[in-house]
Specification:
single chain; mainly alpha; 2 helices; 82% helix
């Protein structure tokens, strides 16, 4: 589980920002959602897929 430590924290921070924007939409939350939360989601997803790909190659499945 330590392999996905950074990805999980990126997703948690992005979800907190998304929740803040959902509950209280305003310009600051919108900016944080647009320029922080969405890139964090992309980085978390890309990091997860990269680690899955590495694990599949290490186990010679691919």
């Amino acid at each position: 589980m330590n392999d996905l430590y950074a990805e999980s924290w990126a997703a948690v921070v992005a979800f907190v920002i998304t929740l803040g924007y959902t509950l209280s939409p305003g310009p600051y939350w919108m900016g944080a959602f647009t320029f922080v939360a969405q890139p964090l989601f992309v980085l978390a997803i890309a990091g997860y897929f990269w680690k899955v790909f590495q694990d599949l190659r290490k186990n010679k499945i691919i």
